[in-house]
Each structure stands twice: as C-alpha cells, then as structure tokens.
Amino acid sequence: MSNAATQSKLRVVKMKRNIFVTKPTLPPLEEFIPYLEQIWENKILTNGGPFHQQLEDELCRYLGVEHICLFTNGTIALVTALQALRVTGEVITTPYSFVATSHSLLWNGIKPIFADICANTLNLDPAKIEAAITPQTTAIMPVHCYGHPCDVDAIQKIADNYNLKVIYDAAHAFGVQDEDGSVLRHGDLSVLSFHATKVFNTFEGGAIICPDAKTKLRIDQLKNFGHVGEVNVAAPGINGKMSEFNAALGLLQLKHLDEAFSRRERIDAAYRERLQGVRGIHCLQGSGEKIANYAYFPILVKADYPISRDELNQRLKDTGINPRRYFYPPISEFPMYRGLASSHRENLPIAFEASRQVLCLPLYPDLEIEVVDEVCRLIAGQ
Fold first, then answer.
1. Shortest CA distance to 21 belongs to which of 294, 277, 276?
2. Cα 225 to Cα 69, 183, 238, 301, 302, distances in angstroms
3. What CDD domains does the annotation carry (predicted)?
4. What does the pLDDT look like over 272-293, one tens digit per residue?
5. 163 Cβ contact partners less than 8 Å away, ≥ 6 residues apart
6. Whole-angstrom Cα distance, residue 322 to residue 23?
7. Packing angle of the helix pair 369-380, 244-275 (nearest 10 deg)
8. What structural domains and CATH numbers belong to the chain?
C-alpha cells in the first residue's frame, strides 16, 4: 500500500473508531422526559395505552395507510401476519434476506420454498416465483430488499392467477413510496420492523399494515394472546404488544424523521459521487421508488475489483470502519434450511453470487461526510 493510502488509514483511525453500518437515531434526551412523566402519571405501561393509540394514528397519517397494528418487534409481527391470514402448506420466499423472514414460516409450521432473485434489484424474481408454485403453495412472502420495492404488479398478478396470499416483509421499506403512494399498501399485509437499526425505530418494535378494520381487529386480538373481550380467548395468540415506552419513543422519532431522511439522502449521494468510476464496484440502484428512505448503502464487489469482497471488508475493519456483508450467507445455507430441495445452490445462482459480493457501507444521519470520503478513498485504494 502506498504511503498516501497508509496516511489515509491513519487519519480514519485517529478521527473516529468503531464506525458501523448503522447507528440508532436518538432524539435529544430532554425531549423524551415529558413523555416519561406522562407515562408515570397515566400509570399505563402497555396494553394499548394512550401513546400506543396516538402512535398508530400518527403513523397512519405519516405513511399514508388506513390501518396499522403495532408490535413488540417485526419478527412477531411476521409470525402473526401469517397466522392472521391462516397461511399453511408452502410459502415461496427469498433466500436473500435476514433470517427472521423464513423463521416466521417455521414458527407457523409452514415450509419455505426459496426462489431466486433479480440481479439488478436483489428482490424476488417474479418468473422464479411462478416456476416454484406447487399444489401446496398458499402464499408468497417477498422482501423489499434494502427498501427498494419489489415488482409488486407482477407479483400480484401471479398471486391472483393462482389464488395466493401475499405478505410483504417490508422491514426496510418505512416511508418508501411508488408512483401511487405508500409501497406498504401492496399485498394482503405488509410488515414493518422498528428495530434500533431501522430508519424509524422504537428501540424494539414493528407493525402490520392492514387493509381494513376487520383484519386489524383480528390481528389486535392475536397479538394479545387471542383475547376477545375480558374472559374469552378465541385463538392461540401471542404476546406481541408494544409498550407505552416504545410508543412514546416512536412519537418523538417522528418529529425528527424528515431531517434524518434528508441527511441520509446527502450521504447516499456522496457515496455515489465518490465511488463512480471505481473499477469493480457496483452501487445498487433503486427499483422504481418515487420516494426512497436511503436505509442502506450496499455495494457489489465484482470480479474485476483488485481484491476480494472479504479482503476489502477486512481492509475497512482494520481502520475502524465496520461494513457488513448483508446478506451473507443466504438463508438457504443455514442448517435448518439446507436440506430443502429449493435450497440447492443451482436453484439460487443469483442469490449466491450477490451474497458473495455484497458489502453494506455505513449510512446513518450523524455520519460525517469526511468519514464517507475516507471510506471511499480506502475502497478506491488511495
């Protein structure tokens, strides 16, 4: 490595250590104190308290949706969404996601069927979905990967032709809009994550976007152990309720969200400008969103880059920059899925290739542009 590159690495180490892919966006502490005081005064900590109800209302307005059910986390929301729609048998899904996507199927006794992804979007390929349908298929569970919308029209057409349910894992897609409005309106249900690493977070949390009041009522019952009224239990539900503390944090986060998105957009643009022309580095583009949320900044390290993806990953780590190979390995490689016929590598060539190439770079509102500069210099080998 040249002396200039060495000096660049030293500047990064001196400037800031332990820079991760994402960091929680936290509002000023003094703004949260009144919410805590109100919780103490109300003496309502959970079970659909006033902050819970207020957050549901405000999220509906912000996201442009009719009905939303808040949850303690996105994984339990996925599990409950499948239960609410009475999904059984086989569900076609992507191997290129976080493992919670497919785990939610196993929790419901459903067999995941993995289909390959599109090379340009890393979302489920509609042509591969149709080829994977069997008489046991009852639903499709696509993922809006990195917040970029799936080919929702093609997926819905397949679902309509084969009478299948569609549940979107929209964990990355908070605030994303296509030409007709919120991307969350597609499918039978869409599921959000409000984990601390997401663009909108409640420390831990999640939600299901519902098409109508009847579906919302069923989901609200299922997330409260299946209770219908005070003494009746109508279904084997789960404890998935969001607490008042988490809801209050969400209300405060909403006040600062537009500015956070603006900062994310500037960082995204800075990466694209500085990495343009770096041989072997491909910056993933959006896939039809009118309004993006800039949740992640994935790059693909191609074969003509001077070193491997893993060597680049280590080069950055050595300077205190911590990218993430997100998603690596594919879900289909984990022991509980490896034995499925749909998990064979020859069935998922694009997913495996993307998994070997992907590297998500740091992106969060407080990230300094000078750090972006140093990351890009290191990638460019300067």
1. 294
2. 15, 30, 4, 46, 48
3. AHBA_syn
4. 999 999 999 999 998 889 999 9
5. none
6. 11
7. 50
8. 3-24+257-380 (3.90.1150.10), 29-252 (3.40.640.10)
Tokens linked to 80: 């409950």
Could you give the residue ranges of the DSSP H alpha helices within the chain?
A: 3-15, 29-42, 50-63, 74-84, 100-107, 126-131, 152-162, 213-222, 244-275, 309-317, 335-338, 349-357, 369-380
Neighbouring C-beta atoms of residue 59, cutoff 10 Å: 22
Give the β-pairing of 297-301 and 181-182.
Answer: unpaired
Please tell me the distance from the alpha carbon of residue 83 to that of residue 80, in angstroms, as a whole number: 5
Q: Which residues of 196-210 are buried (b: 16+ CB within 10 A; e: fewer)?
A: ebbbbbbbbbbbbbb
**Among 67, 64, 32, which residue's Cα sits nearest to residue 51?**
32
257: number of Cβ within 10 Å: 18
CA distance 206 to 228: 22
- Measured between alpha carbons, how far is 192 from 171 in angstroms, rounded to an integer? 4
Tens of pLDDT along 18-35?
899 998 878 888 999 999
pTM of the model: 0.94
Angle, helix 213-222 to helix 74-84, in steps of 10 degrees: 120
Report angle CA 348, 354, 356 to the nearest 5 degrees.
105
CB-based contact 137:162 (threshold 8 Å): yes
- Whether the CA torsion 248, 250, 254, 259 is positive or negative: it is positive
